[in-house]
What does this fold into?
Amino acid sequence: MFHRLIPGTIMKKELLATAVALMLGLGVNAQEQKKQPDAGAQQANEMVNKMKEEAAAYYAGADTADYGVRYRLRYLCNKKKNIRFEEDRVVLISPDVTLDMSYQGIGETRWRMANPKGQGGDRSLAYHLTPNFYFYYPSSGRMVRTYRIITEEFLLDDARCENNWKITDEEKKIGEYNCRKATLDRGGRRWTAWFTTDLPHRGAPQTFTGLPGVVLEVADADREVCWMFNGLVNSIPDSKLYIKMPEKFVQATPEEFRKILRVFSLSDNSYVQQSGVMSKNSSHYPEKYTPSTGIDACEIDNPIER
It folds into this structure.
C-alpha cells in the first residue's frame, strides 16, 4: 500500500537534512581553519623575521649602545615663509662612541615588530628622515660625519670637534633628571645646553659635544633651532641599539656631493634610476628612506650656522 506524502513533511525533512549538512560542513571548516594558520598572521610573522635577519646581517660586528636619548628637533629653516622643519632624532650612547641619527628607522622597525598587523606606522614620529650620521669619540674628540644615499656612504668630515662651553651654576630639572646650564657662542648664534650627570657616559646631539654629561636640551637664543628631550630608548633583544661606522665610502668632492644630494632629496626615484646604486648593491638596509621630506629638500634661508 502506498501512502501519500505530504509536501510540507518533505520540505521539513529536506530542511533538517540541509541544516545537518551545514552544521557538519561548518565543523569540518572550523577544524581545517584550526589546522591552517591565519594567512595574515603568517605574513606578518614572516615580515618581522625578515626585518630581524636584515638587521642582524647588516649590524654584524657593530658596537652596541647602552641606551639612547631621543630628541625632537624643531628648526625654523625658512623665516620668510615661516616654515618649521621637525624631525625625531636619537643619540645612541656607549662608553667609547656615540651616534646621532634619525630616530625614524629605529622607531618604525620597533613599531612594526610590536604591531605586525598595523597599518600606517607609528604616529608619534615626525615622519621625516635625514640620513646623516654623527659619530663622536669622547676620549679623542674625533667627530665623523657621514651621509647615506640608498646604499652608498659619503664621508663629509673627519676631524676633532672642540667647543668652548661655559658651564654655569644654574640648574633645572628635565623630566626626572637634574641638569646644569652651559652656554656656547658658535656659528653666529648663542646656544644654551642643559646637561645631566644622572645618566651614564657622555652624549649630545650632532656637534654640541664636550660637556661632562649627557645633553638633554639645546637651543639658540631665539629658539629658532632646538633639540628637546623626548625620552630614553633602551636596547631590547629583538632590536638592539647598534653603532656601526661604514666600512667604505664613495669618493666625491664637496661640490659633487652637493649636486648628488640635491638630485636625491628632490626626487628619490630619479636618483635611483640615474645612479644605478640598486643594481650595483645587492644588499639594503633596514632603515626607511624618505629624504624628499627631509631637511635637504627644504628651501633654507636661515642656516643653523650663519
Q: What stands out?
A: The longest helix spans residues 7-35. Helices lie at 7-35, 39-58, 104-114, 254-266, 268-275, 277-280. The CA atoms of residues 46 and 103 lie 24 Å apart. The chain has six helices and 13 strands.
